[in-house]
Amino acid sequence: MINKKIFFSLLLLAAGFLSAAAQKSPQDMDRFIDALMKKMTVEEKIGQLNLPVTGEITTGQAKSSDIAAKIKRGEVGGLFNLKGVEKIRDVQKQAVEQSRLGIPLLFGMDVIHGYETMFPIPLGLSCTWDMTAIEESARIAAIEASADGISWTFSPMVDISRDPRWGRVSEGSGEDPFLGAMIAEAMVLGYQGKDMQRNDEIMACVKHFALYGAGEGGRDYNTVDMSRQRMFNEYMLPYEAAVEAGVGSVMASFNEVDGVPATANKWLMTDVLRGQWGFNGFVVTDYTGISEMIDHGIGDLQTVSARAINAGVDMDMVSEGFVSTLKKSIQEGKVSMETLNTACRRILEAKYKLGLFDNPYKYCDLKRPARDIFTKAHRDAARRIAAESFVLLKNDNVTLRPGTPAEPLLPFNPKGNIAVIGPLADSRTNMPGTWSVAAVLDRCPSLVEGLKEMTAGKANILYAKGSNLISDASYEERATMFGRSLNRDNRTDEQLLNEALTVANQSDIIIAALGESSEMSGESSSRTDLNIPDVQQNLLKELLKTGKPVVLVLFTGRPLTLTWEQEHVPAILNVWFGGSEAAYAIGDALFGYVNPGGKLTMSFPKNVGQIPLYYAHKNTGRPLAQGKWFEKFRSNYLDVDNEPLYPFGYGLSYTTFSYGDIDLSRSTIDMTGELTAAVMVTNTGTWPGSEVVQLYIRDLVGSTTRPVKELKGFQKIFLEPGQSEIVRFKIAPEMLRYYNYDLQLVAEPGEFEVMIGTNSRDVKSARFTLK
Ligand code: NOJ
C-alpha cells in the first residue's frame, strides 16, 4: 500500500505536471496572444521589438536614455545587463503596473560561463569533452542568474573558428563542428532545463548566426565570404543543433553572409533558420546590429530597419531603429502589418513560454540570491570542472635532486619553497576570464592566494611579479580594460627581473604564471602576434637559466604560438581562464590531487603564418607526403612545416594510454547497415586518469573533395593504472553524410577510413566500404 505522504506527493507532482502542460498548450498560447494583440496599438507592437541596454554594464558605445519613460509608454520589450534582483523587480513593476497593457519585460544578460560562480571560459570548457559537466555548468549559471532576476542569457556562442587571431575564440568551443554541435545542445539543455517552466530555468540565445568566427584575417567584425558547401559542412552544424535542442532565441551576427549583413539576410534568417531547420523562437540582433548596416553601406536607418524585419529579425538590440522608423515604413508600405505582427507575436510567445504572463515576478524572489548564488556546492562544481579543462601540453622528466632518477616534473609535492612568478600570478580580477559580466571580480583568489591557502603549513609560497604584461604600456592598457587592471609596475624591466631572480634562486621549484590577460581575448581583442608577450618571454628565459625546474602555468584565451616554450620549458600546463575557483583547481592539478585530462579543441600553430590551421583540412592536389617538411611543388611553406605544434584533440596526462588495433565488426555495410569499430585502450602508467578516445572518419572518394579526417564520435573514459577497456563506436551511414555540390545531405558509396586515437594526429586506422 502506498503511504499517505507518497500519495500526496504524487498528487502534487501530477498537479504540477498538469498545470505546466496546460500552460504549454499551443492553442492556449495562441488564444492568449491573439486577445492581447487585439488590444495593442502599432506603437505598442513595435515597442515589444525594442531591446535597449541598461545598467552600469554596457558592452558598446551606445547608451539608451530615459528608459523608465519608454517602459511606461510600452516602447520596450526587454532590457539587458542590469544586475540585481531588486533593481530588476522594480523595473518589472514599472512595466507591469505602469504601462497600459502591463506586458512583462524580458531581462537578458551575457551569462556566458557562469554568473557569480564562474566556470572556465567556453574554449576551456570545451576541452573537458565532458557534456555532463558542460550542461551542469550552464544549469548552475541558470540557477544563479534566475535567482538574480535574469530570464534570458545571450549564450551559447557556437561560432566555429579556425583563426586564433580572433579574440572571440575564447567564447566558443573551438574548430570542430561535430563537437561544437554537442556542446551547443548541452548548453541549451543546461540553461533551459526541461521546458523553462521552473523559476530556475531561463531562455538561451544561440549566437552569432552565422559564420561570425570566419572573419577575414581574424579581425573582429570583419567580412566573411565562404561557399555554401563549406558553410553547411563546417560552420552551420552547431547553430542547427541548438535549434534542434529547442533554443528559444537566436542572435544575428555582425558580419555579412554572401554580401548581405546577417541582420538583413532573408535567406539566412528565414529560409535556412525557419524554413530548413524549423526554428520557432525569435531572432534578436547583436548590439547595434541594425544601425551598423548604415556603415556596411546598405542604406539609412529606416531602410536597414525595414530590411532587418523583412529578413526575419524580430528584436532590435540597442539601435532603436525599429522604434524610430518602423511605423513610417508601415505607412509607406515598406513593411507590412503582417510582418510586424509576426515579430511581435514571437516576442510575446517567448514571454508566454517563460511563464511571465502567469507571474511577471517569477524570477524576482528576493530570498533566492542568498540561497542560490555563489554557493559552496556551485563553487565545488566550478573547481572540479576547471581542473577538467586544463590541458597538459608538456611534462618532461627532470632530475629534481642530484642522485635521484629523472621523473615527470608534474605533479609535485607541495613542500619547500615554491616561487610563483609572473604578471598573472597575483591578479584576482583576471581569474574569471573574459565575459564575466556578473562576477564579483575581487572575490576570486589569485593563484598566489589560492596556493598559499592550499599549502599552509606544508610549503612556502614566494612571489614576484617579474615583469609587466607587455612592455608597451598603451598595449597593456588596451588589454586590461573593464576593471581587469594588472596594476602596471613603474619599476624598470630590469628591476622587476632582478627581484624575480632573487625569489627564484631561493626556491626549489618555479611556477611561471604567464600568458595573456583575460581581456587579451574576447570581443574586439584580435591579435596578430600570438607569442607570449615580449617581457614575459624574456622573464621565462631568465627563470630557466637559474637551472631550477620551471613549470609554465599558461593563462590564455586562445591558442598561442609556443614553439620556443615547447622546446625549452620542461612542463607546460595550459589553464585558460578557469573561473572563480581557478586558483584552487590549478593547485589541484599541480599537486596531483587531480590528473588533468583536457584535450585541445583548437590546433595550436607553430607560427601565425600557418593560420588558418585546422585538422579537418582538405588534401589538395599536391599534398605533402606524411612526415615530410618540404618538397618542391607541393602544398607547403619554405620556412615551417605544415603540422601544428599541438594538434586538435591533444593533451597529456600524468598517466599514459596505449591503443590496440581497430577491430571492425564488418568491412562492408549498405545504406541501412551499421558496423562497430572497437579498440582496446589501456592505462599503461601509474596514475588513474581519464582519456578522450576520439573517432575520426575519412571519406576517401567523394563527388566533391572531402576533408582528410572529421571527428565523428568520442568517449571519455576513466581507467585505473593497468586497467583496459574496449571502446566501441557504432558507425552508420548517417554519420557519413555531408552536403554535396547541390547541398543535398548524402552518404556516397565508396571506401572510408576509420581512425581512432588519443588526438587527431596519433591514430590507428582501418577501412570499410559503404555499398
Ligand atoms: C555584443 C556581442 O557581440 C554579443 O555577443 C553580446 O551578447 C552583446 N554585445 C550584448 O552584450
UniProtKB/TrEMBL annotation:
Superkingdom, natural source: Bacteria
GO BP annotations, alphabetical order: glucan catabolic process
Classification via Pfam families: Fn3-like, Glyco_hydro_3, Glyco_hydro_3_C
GO molecular function list: beta-glucosidase activity; metal ion binding
Compartment(s) of residence: Periplasm
InterPro entries cross-referenced by the UniProt entry: Cellulose_Degrad_GH3, Fn3-like, GH, Glyco_hydro_3_AS, Glyco_hydro_3_C, Glyco_hydro_3_C_sf, Glyco_hydro_3_N, Glyco_hydro_3_N_sf
Any single Gene Ontology cellular-component annotation: periplasmic space
This enzyme's EC code(s): 3.2.1.21
Principal location: periplasm
Keywords: Glycosidase, Hydrolase, Metal-binding, Periplasm, Signal
Catalytic activity field: Hydrolysis of terminal, non-reducing beta-D-glucosyl residues with release of beta-D-glucose
Binding-site residues for Mg(2+), renumbered to this chain: D699, V701
Fibronectin type III-like domain location: 691-760
Record's signal peptide: 1-20
Family that this chain belongs to: Belongs to the glycosyl hydrolase 3 family.
Listed PANTHER family: LYSOSOMAL BETA GLUCOSIDASE, PERIPLASMIC BETA-GLUCOSIDASE-RELATED
Protein's name in the database: Periplasmic beta-glucosidase
Organism: Bacteroides thetaiotaomicron (strain ATCC 29148 / DSM 2079 / JCM 5827 / CCUG 10774 / NCTC 10582 / VPI-5482 / E50)
Species classification: Bacteria, Pseudomonadati, Bacteroidota, Bacteroidia, Bacteroidales
